[in-house]
Amino acid sequence: MDVKHYMQQLGQQARQAGREISKADSGRKNLALLKIAEALSASSAELARENQKDLQAGKDNGLDAASLDRLELTPSRIEAMVEGLNQVAALPDPVGEISQLSYRPSGIQVGQMRVPLGVIGIIYESRPNVTIDAAALCLKAGNACILRGGSESIHSNRAIAQCIGKGLAEAGLPLAAVQVVETTDRAAVGELITMKDYVDVIVPRGGKSLIERISAEATIPVIKHLDGICHVYIDGKADIDKAVAIAMNAKTHRYGVCNAMETLLVAESIAGQVLPILAEKYAEKGVELRGCLRTCSLVKKAVRATEADWHTEYLAPILSIKIVADIDEAIAHINQYSSAHTEAIVTEDYTLARRFLREVDSSSVMVNASTRFADGFEYGLGAEIGISTDKLHARGPVGLEGLTSLKYIVLGDGHIRQ
Amino acid sequence: MDVKHYMQQLGQQARQAGREISKADSGRKNLALLKIAEALSASSAELARENQKDLQAGKDNGLDAASLDRLELTPSRIEAMVEGLNQVAALPDPVGEISQLSYRPSGIQVGQMRVPLGVIGIIYESRPNVTIDAAALCLKAGNACILRGGSESIHSNRAIAQCIGKGLAEAGLPLAAVQVVETTDRAAVGELITMKDYVDVIVPRGGKSLIERISAEATIPVIKHLDGICHVYIDGKADIDKAVAIAMNAKTHRYGVCNAMETLLVAESIAGQVLPILAEKYAEKGVELRGCLRTCSLVKKAVRATEADWHTEYLAPILSIKIVADIDEAIAHINQYSSAHTEAIVTEDYTLARRFLREVDSSSVMVNASTRFADGFEYGLGAEIGISTDKLHARGPVGLEGLTSLKYIVLGDGHIRQ
């Protein structure tokens, strides 16, 4: 197969389908989502069978247990995909929404209309459920999409693509609105991220190395997040109970997620009270502590953190801890080491809370709440296609709105410019 | 001078100043704008003297009359810069504005806060007034900026930079919040558009070739517009008077602007009525007409348009005209040839107006209004740094909001994720 030619063809078809889907009314898009859900439910045996091929190939190729787990389509995961489709169908349609329409002194009315981006390219790794999640969000936002999953999940993705095609056909929408790349050739990715004429934005989902490579090579805008080096700062005026609850939740609720805390900053005036309590609780959970010099003198079990620790997203039961003089030092540390994902302060001080909110330049900034809340569902977006640590276009959890743009509309009655 | 080192230094200083200015309150930013305006007024003799050096050098180097005109700082242009500063000072401060703050089922409050982008690099050609316009908008939006004007206006820009520095100092803001690149070495641009660590977004202002080159070479996001191939479609249900007024205004109000009409599409059912009237009026204005075969049979003075005409932004008294069957053919033509800047329909038909608004994918879409309204001032943005024909981040006229981003804020009371 000529990969370049194949991808160009997908691109042309996506561009054409994108024009169609951008005009589709909400009822038809929702019908497609519900029909895809029905097709998935009806095909669960088939999906399990195809998934089994991927799992077997994965075992044969020596995939590790974590990857095999991500790859598996259990009945409850199929059910979750069905549930996700129903949820996205229930969300309000963002497309065509008109805002801020008002009269100008010239007599024209000016407002903004929310419009689809066009064609979205999604590149992801082993989880086959991303195929459904991404397709559902793109479809609802009026975009065509080209989905490039990991080669290890190709059979599963093809089976899911069958269900998507069935749902689109039953709703009378073009099949090319959602296309799954059928080749595992890596050159397909290189083509996808440089087809400027056919693809408007790339959303990579996966490990840091995948995202870095795609960002470096793409000539199309990329909505990405690289790291989640999230901080919690326990201020001198913190409520100890809240501080302990938040620091524990942010680190230990789940370890392998981007919104988990990786570095804890503690004001020196409260460190003696709060760190011993936390150290004991972290020990119960088996969390390894790496601290600054002063932390190590307070917490005997802590080992010395190195410069590299402040830069590291552990995604594991490891936490770095630094004692700081005050909020200034905390914010300076965050500005230097944070990946601009999510930071939280724990304080009862009104003025410091207000300062932290304004001055910390991350995609989510929190007061007295766990960093684990940085999530599209928790924020009420209904669903998310990822979390952006970029500043332009979309920042933080990206839901339907992040997959749209705004155009200006002008209504007149024969108005001309003087 | 080591250009790379010099630019890196500007970048570091801008990054630091950006942090300061992002925290500056509205009063201080407005004070700086007003003090810069005062300094400009007080320095008009000095500005004229420095501008004279640029004009003389321009003449010596054989600059054409149009470029020399753009370069000139007349008293009324200095007055316009002062007026612009006062206007930007009077605009509401976008920074820190919190929207959509609401309670979620978990008990946390989630909202979005408008925040500066950080450091903006502006690259422009001969007009020295851009130095003030760009600096004012960046400053008000809480950003630091690095301004790289054309080498032909270096003396004027340096003199303006003196005034900016004076205003910043009087308001107690860091001087590096606005830096004018003092070297005319072209390598400075190459450095500016690739200093990822220090610059967050590039805004090029100038001719298409400048913008294409910068877009191709930049590794930093670019807010740009390339072309303004704007269309007016006169529908079969158009009011003839409105159609004539709009088609004349869109083409002849000003020729060299990006929101001027370049191609007129006319429904065949009305062409016989409207084209002869328009042809006569265009002839009075000296506008050359290039038409499709059917246009030429209706309008004797029209010459045959070639395929290239539909792709061309004339920026001159030339208009291409095509007779189309209906709105479907009009939209198809626009989708194929438009630069996605601004398109207008003239019609009294409710359903077609609604369709045109939804289906035409340009940064401004109008009904019964002249394309010349596509402008930040006319839209009520107060000022504009340019017009974006991109879809991501900013689309259409870019004002203060386009120089900001949104971060999520979360307010809790010790909330943790279940």
Short structural summary:
Chain A is of the alpha/beta class and 418 residues long. Chain A contains 15 helices and 16 strands. Chain A folds into 2 domains: 3-224 and 396-411, Aldehyde Dehydrogenase, Chain A, domain 1 (3-Layer(aba) Sandwich); 230-373, Aldehyde Dehydrogenase, Chain A, domain 2 (3-Layer(aba) Sandwich), CATH 3.40.309.
Q: Which tags fit this structure?
A:
globular; EC 1.2.1.41 (chains A, B); Glu-5-SA_DH (chains A, B); proline biosynthesis (chains A, B); Aldehyde Dehydrogenase, Chain A, domain 2; Aldehyde Dehydrogenase, Chain A, domain 1; cytoplasm (chains A, B); 4-stranded parallel beta sheet; 2 domains; alpha/beta; homodimer; 7-stranded parallel beta sheet; 418 residues
- Through-space gap between termini of chain A: 59 Å
Helix and strand composition category of chain A: alpha/beta
Largest interface: chains, residues each:
A-B, 66 and 65 residues
Average pLDDT, all residues of chain A: 95
Oligomer: homodimer
Overall number of strands of chain A: 16
Write down the overall geometry of chain A.
Answer: globular
- Sequence of strands across the biggest β-sheet of chain A: 10-9-11-8-7-12-13
* Rg calculated over all Cα atoms of chain A: 24 Å
Low-confidence stretches of chain A: none
Tell me about the biggest sheet of chain A?
7 strands, parallel
Q: And the CATH topology of the largest domain in chain A? A: Aldehyde Dehydrogenase, Chain A, domain 1
Helix segment tally of chain A = 15
Task: Supply the CATH superfamily name of the largest domain in chain A.
Answer: Aldehyde Dehydrogenase, Chain A, domain 1
As for the number of domains of chain A, it is 2
How much strand content do the residues of chain A show?
A: 15-25%
Helix content of chain A: 40-55%
CATH architecture of the largest domain in chain A: 3-Layer(aba) Sandwich
CATH class of the largest domain in chain A: Alpha Beta
